[in-house]
Amino acid sequence: MLPSTVSTIAVGGNITAWGSVIVDQELAVFSAALRAYRKRTGLTQRQLAAEAGVSVRTVRGIECGEVCRPHPASLRVLAAATGLDEPCGVAVSVLGPLVVRRGSVEVAVEGTKQRSLLALLALRADEVVPQHEIIDVLWGDDPPRTCRDLIYVHASRLRKVLGSGAVDAASSAGYRLNGDRVGLDTARFTSLVEVGEHARALDCWRGAVLADLPDRVRQHPAALALARQRVAVTIDHADTGGRLEEARHRLEAVVPDEPLHEELHARLMLALAGCGEQGVALELYERLRDRLDRELGVHPGPVLRDAHLRVLRQEVRTRPPYRPMWTRSRHATNSAPRMSIFDG
């Protein structure tokens, strides 16, 4: 690692040499940790390879340092399978305020427009983002006449931050962020969800998607889809997780970013009541009920009403799941809510 006194690299700085040192050191740490993990768990290289879905040669090469530049996808799945931190030269994080790091060193990306461009490309990593979409996100309905030239300038500056090959220009069609050249917290989140590691997947989040950027970025369909996936994973984890306090913690982390989401609030109410905080749970219900009436002109739905009634009756679990009785099937569309078993 670099000395802790070096915390930020500004855009345009001479970071090429530093970047190679960080990458090599991060990879060496990962190789040693991977080998230690396998020894500690008693797994053979073949067993670990099968668990992660990579070849034995890949595991052997990384452990022995024979592969200088492993494929990022291989590192990602090995990290997901073992719980280790994924090594990467440059990492872009969008699950919270936008953060760029080179190894452990934060890289400053200056200017709202440049940050918004990077955020948009990261949301749609490995896809060509058309120029008209970039213009809409960066300037809305009033772009300057030189907007395409400005995009070119911002993209060029991003290449200096992320390294060559990270941002591709697809002729006049648009720009693409190469996910093989940049570590993305969205990719790690998705990988962990796919292997059922919901708690670790939720640890990838630091707040609302791109919380520090303008609404045009935060309301992009890709950002909204990530927020919905976070909610779904949080609900599944609350319904199937283990410890009461952990479920409460996970729900409390998401509820402020989803202030009108009734299912999240219902589960948090039941978790709070299960922790002995019935009064706090009832206050949460009253605040949401008033907000639904004030902002949407609607009354609480069946899921929230059921949770309220169970808190009043003290019919709550002291361990997960915290499903209200009335839940909607995840495969249903316009069907009526179905009854699920809830043991008080």
From TrEMBL:
Family annotation (InterPro entries): AfsR-DnrI-RedD_regulator (IPR051677), BTAD (IPR005158), Cro/C1-type_HTH (IPR001387), Lambda_DNA-bd_dom_sf (IPR010982), OmpR/PhoB-type_DNA-bd (IPR001867), Sig_transdc_resp-reg_C-effctor (IPR016032), TPR-like_helical_dom_sf (IPR011990), WH-like_DNA-bd_sf (IPR036388)
One Pfam family linked to the record: Trans_reg_C
Domain OmpR/PhoB-type, residue spans: 81-179
Region annotation (Disordered) ranges: 324-344
DNA-binding region location: 81-179
Any GO BP: regulation of DNA-templated transcription
Keywords: DNA-binding, Transcription, Transcription regulation
Domain HTH cro/C1-type: 34-90
Entry-linked SMART domains: BTAD, HTH_XRE, Trans_reg_C
Domain of life of the source: Bacteria
Keyword presence, Disulfide bond: no
Molecular function per GO: DNA binding
Family per similarity comment: Belongs to the AfsR/DnrI/RedD regulatory family.
Protein name: Helix-turn-helix domain-containing protein
Organism of this sequence: Lentzea tibetensis
Lineage of source species: Bacteria, Bacillati, Actinomycetota, Actinomycetes, Pseudonocardiales
